């Protein structure tokens, strides 16, 4: 599907073409960064978050001190409290996205000194963006001489900067930018300013191609079954020319079109790749984790299996042509998406070397495939699942369930999962749960009724499980290390949508409560105050906790080491201090409760020569530390905690590491609640101190 | 503009209801609403000991706030305030731990500065205070007879305490 895009030839582009013709044919010399650098979002294109560094180790982790820190408040017109970036460090410069403007900053990696800053002022287009704020990061490219930085603005424009100066490279696209709302094999509706499409993940650069996916608003209560589609595109790193496009919803005549019955491929949207993309440069293959189609919890307007919704798609790096795919969830109804980077791993199964790809998920399954053929390493048989009775819904009667490895986090809700510190608490929890439909993974949503069920109580769905930070992979032990929320419950109830609210038959909601469209960020940005309610909101508001204690029993959040040669767990631990609400509970006073971990889904891991490192996602205040969170280090072989260092706020962006000037640094993004975004760099005290 | 005016009117109506109560407290409140200066003086002695456990909002206000919440906040923070893929929960242990030991002013200013994400500051102070009242009610902090303030400096006098304090002697 290589593209020749029709382009109006004007004076500039003629000059531009002439320039191209003069381009030396042999500039494909690739830049090979050192393994002491961190040259792409997940350390490498394989999505490993691994660096073989060991200056910071079990013996000295507790000695870490802050080398430098940078607040991101002024990189935008207001502070940001959700800093999710992971910086890059290449060739002695640290690059990151930062602040509510999603500015790009270049820092001295040893001192944090600001070298340059670049910001794009997008006006209404930025304000209307479905995915705002600083995003997850950027991409670096070099041919050994020239160095470029790529990032996507909130308003969905791909910007190419000179890595040395932060100035746009005029020869790329239109004066350093490519408008991603154009040339997308669809008209982005309603217009270029407000048309809903964007991206928050970091672009990926592989060989000489920049790969960009797409994201939308959250899809719980969309106004329409129609929406823009999230195609994936490859662009030339030098010119910005579109090289290929992959239609995540097939066009008529393309493979998979018939999995959208009644022509629903024509109008259904979303189905983008909003999370990180992984590439095997040697094989020339791209791994695309595709999200859910329009309307997360109701699929009655898209009968069929809906390829490539919630599928892992392997495509050719040069052409974008599909090589293989595996749909993890048929006819998606749970907002499972595929939420994180596929992980490439060269493993040994039954004595044979295999080039594998492992996919962590919200539903707590780690799907492992031969990454050349797409064949599952261990069987993933189709198993019968519950068929629901929501009017107009189309159900898949089976879902593929991996035989190995076992689920590493809870992906259903049963009575046994409920709080059990005391029998009385369990009884209270059962009472709450009795108002909901319970069941194992792939128990479908129900219509919400006042007399019950209010909906289906789920885990491992919209939040996960493993969400966007994904996992890490250690090429030494062949272990995947993956954080998962083990207690993120999602009640999924459906209510009939009034025509004036949505053209979809059912949207997320609770019986007895006023049905309203849930406005997303960027919607009605310029509007005045809302109208008063037509009628008072009804009942149906049930708190999913027991006296403030979590409805679900610990562990609330885990890190699991999974060996990919065997498909088995090596260890699993509860990650994170026991929450204040549990530790300080009067009801639980005197009870000995082992560390519970925390109910949070956005924790990313880093693996080094010896350690697995991850920060906490929640704030605690303990006898050992003031309000804050800990960055913890575990022995990667055993899972034993070997050290922890204080952070003033929770980790909100996954940690990274690098060496510069003979010292190892760990940089992590922290923010949340009252604490605005900050990157903090930790290192060991200098000798003699 | 019309919508805003209607919201204001509905607030006035509730004030009228209070007049019917005819308790000394209600009269003070009315006076206070009429004059912020007066309020500062009237509340000053009590301020040092007030926390979210002392009935710092009214049920009526929380009801207004619920409606606003569902229009302005729920898409990201969830129908049940449990958070979503792009926004943190506004109830439960993690939320309480985040703000424990700070003040309602800190929480209010955070909302003023950054929410709604598409157009921070688009809502009026009154609307933000109403939404905050709803959040307090969902988090099971008790309602009282006075509405939550809409002035940051006054909200700073209300401590956010996650755990109910021991009964005063």
Question: What topology emerges from the helices and strands here?
Answer:
The complex is a heterodimer of chains A (about 700) and B (about 170).
Chain A (H helix, E strand, L loop, with lengths): L10 H12 L42 E7 L16 E3 L2 E6 L4 E5 L6 E5 L5 H4 L11 E4 L4 E6 L4 E6 L14 E3 L24 E3 L2 E4 L19 E5 L5 E5 L31 E3 L4 E5 L21 E6 L5 E6 L15 E7 L2 E8 L7 E4 L11 E3 L13 E3 L22 H11 L12 E2 L8 E4 L11 E4 L4 E7 L3 E8 L9 E3 L36 E2 L2 E2 L6 E7 L4 E7 L5 H4 L22 E2 L3 E5 L13 E7 L5 E7 L3 E10 L2 E10 L2 E9 L6
Chain B lengths: L1 H20 L2 H11 L1 H12 L11 H14 L1 H4 L15 H7 L4 H11 L10 H14 L13 H4 L14
Helix pairs in contact in B: 2-3, 4-8
Strand composition percent of chain A: 25-35%
Radius of gyration over C-alpha positions of chain B, nearest whole angstrom: 16 Å
CATH architecture of chain B: Orthogonal Bundle
Gap between N and C termini of chain A, in Å? 60 Å
How many domain regions of chain B?
A: 1
Residue share in helix of chain A: under 10%
Q: Which term fits the overall shape of chain A?
A: globular
Rounded average pLDDT of chain B: 77
CATH class category name of chain B: Mainly Alpha
Helix and strand composition category of chain A? mainly beta
In the CATH hierarchy, the third-tier topology of chain B is known as: Cytochrome Bc1 Complex, Chain D, domain 2
* Secondary-structure element string of chain B: HHHHHHHHH
Low-confidence stretches of chain B: 1-47
């Amino acid at each position: 599907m290589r593209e020749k895009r029709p382009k109006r030839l004007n004076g500039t582009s003629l000059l531009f073409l002439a320039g191209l013709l003069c381009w030396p044919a042999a500039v494909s010399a690739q830049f090979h960064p050192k393994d002491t650098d961190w040259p792409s979002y997940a350390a490498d294109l394989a999505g490993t978050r691994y660096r073989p560094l060991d200056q910071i180790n079990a013996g000295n982790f507790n000695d870490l001190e802050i080398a430098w820190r940078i607040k991101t408040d002024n990189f935008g017109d207001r502070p940001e409290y959700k800093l999710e970036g992971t910086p890059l460090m290449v060739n002695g410069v640290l690059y990151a996205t930062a602040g509510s403007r999603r500015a790009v900053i270049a820092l001295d990696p040893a001192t944090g000194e600001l070298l340059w800053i670049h910001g794009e002022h997008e006006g209404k287009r930025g304000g209307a963006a479905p995915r705002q704020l600083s995003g997850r990061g950027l991409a670096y490219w070099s041919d050994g001489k020239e160095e470029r930085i790529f990032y996507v603005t909130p308003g969905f424009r791909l910007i190419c900067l000179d890595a040395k100066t932060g100035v746009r490279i005029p020869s790329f696209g239109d004066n350093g930018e490519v408008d991603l709302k154009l040339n997308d094999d669809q008209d982005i509706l309603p217009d270029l300013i407000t048309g809903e499409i964007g991206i928050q993940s970091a672009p990926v650069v592989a060989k000489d191609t920049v790969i960009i996916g797409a994201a939308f608003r959250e899809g719980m209560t969309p106004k329409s079954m129609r929406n823009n589609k999230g195609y994936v595109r490859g662009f030339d790193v030098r010119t910005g020319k579109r090289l290929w496009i992959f239609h995540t919803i097939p066009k008529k005549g393309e493979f998979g079109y018939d999995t959208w019955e009644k022509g629903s491929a024509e109008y259904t949207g979303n189905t983008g790749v909003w999370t990180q993309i992984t590439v095997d440069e040697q094989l020339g293959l791209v791994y695309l984790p595709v999200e859910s189609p329009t309307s997360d919890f109701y699929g009655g307007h898209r009968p069929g299996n809906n390829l490539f919704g919630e599928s892992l798609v392997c495509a050719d790096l040069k052409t974008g042509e599909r090589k293989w795919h595996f749909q993890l969830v048929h006819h998606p109804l749970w907002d499972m998406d595929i939420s994180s980077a596929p992980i490439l791993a060269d493993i040994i199964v039954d004595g044979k070397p295999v080039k594998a790809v492992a996919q962590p998920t919200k539903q707590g399954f780690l799907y492992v495939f031969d990454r050349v053929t797409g064949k599952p390493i261990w069987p993933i048989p189709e198993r019968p699942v519950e068929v629901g009775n929501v009017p107009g819904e189309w159900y898949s009667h089976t879902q593929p369930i991996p035989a190995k490895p076992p689920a590493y986090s809870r992906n259903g809700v049963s009575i046994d999962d409920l709080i059990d510190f005391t029998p009385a608490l369990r009884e209270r929890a059962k009472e709450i749960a009795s108002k909901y439909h319970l069941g194992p993974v792939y128990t479908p949503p129900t219509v919400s009724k006042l007399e019950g069920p209010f909906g289906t109580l789920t885990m491992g769905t919209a939040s996960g499980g493993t969400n966007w930070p994904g996992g890490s992979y250690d090429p030494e032990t062949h272990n995947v290390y993956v954080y998962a929320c083990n207690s993120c419950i999602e009640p999924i109830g459906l209510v009939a949508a009034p025509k004036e609210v949505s053209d979809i038959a059912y949207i997320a909601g609770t019986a007895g409560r006023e049905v309203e469209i849930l406005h997303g960020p960027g919607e009605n940005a310029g509007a005045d105050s809302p109208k008063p309610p037509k009628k008072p909101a009804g009942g149906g508001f049930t708190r999913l906790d027991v006296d403030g204690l979590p409805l679900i029993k610990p562990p609330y959040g885990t890190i699991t080491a999974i060996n990919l040669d065997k498909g088995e767990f090596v260890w699993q631990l509860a990650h994170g201090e026991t929450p204040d609400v549990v530790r300080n509970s009067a009801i639980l006073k005197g009870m000995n409760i082992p560390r519970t971990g925390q109910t949070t889904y956005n924790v990313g891991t880093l693996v080094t020569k010896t350690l697995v490192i991850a920060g906490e996602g929640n704030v605690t205040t303990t006898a050992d530390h003031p309000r804050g969170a800990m960055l913890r280090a575990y022995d990667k072989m055993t899972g034993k905690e070997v050290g922890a260092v204080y952070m003033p706020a929770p980790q909100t962006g996954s940690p990274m590491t690098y060496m510069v000037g003979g010292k190892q640094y760990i940089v992590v993004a922290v923010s949340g609640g009252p604490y605005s975004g900050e990157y903090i760099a930790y290192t060991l005290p200098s000798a003699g101190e | 503009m019309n919508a805003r005016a209607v919201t204001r009117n509905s607030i006035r109506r509730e004030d009228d209801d209070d007049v019917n109560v005819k308790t000394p407290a209600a009269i003070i409140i009315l006076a206070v609403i009429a004059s912020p200066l007066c309020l500062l003086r009237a509340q000053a002695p009590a301020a040092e000991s007030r926390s979210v456990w002392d009935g710092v909002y009214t049920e009526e206000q929380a009801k207004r706030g619920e409606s606003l919440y569902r229009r302005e906040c729920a898409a990201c923070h969830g129908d049940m305030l449990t958070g979503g893929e792009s926004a943190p929960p506004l109830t439960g242990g993690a939320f309480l731990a985040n703000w424990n030991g700070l003040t309602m002013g800190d929480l209010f200013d955070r909302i003023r500065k950054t929410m709604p994400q598409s157009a921070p500051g688009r809502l009026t102070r009154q609307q933000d205070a109403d939404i905050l009242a709803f959040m307090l009610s969902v988090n099971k902090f008790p309602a009282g007879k006075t509405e939550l303030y809409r002035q940051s400096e006054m909200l700073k006098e209300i401590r956010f305490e996650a755990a109910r304090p021991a009964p005063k002697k």
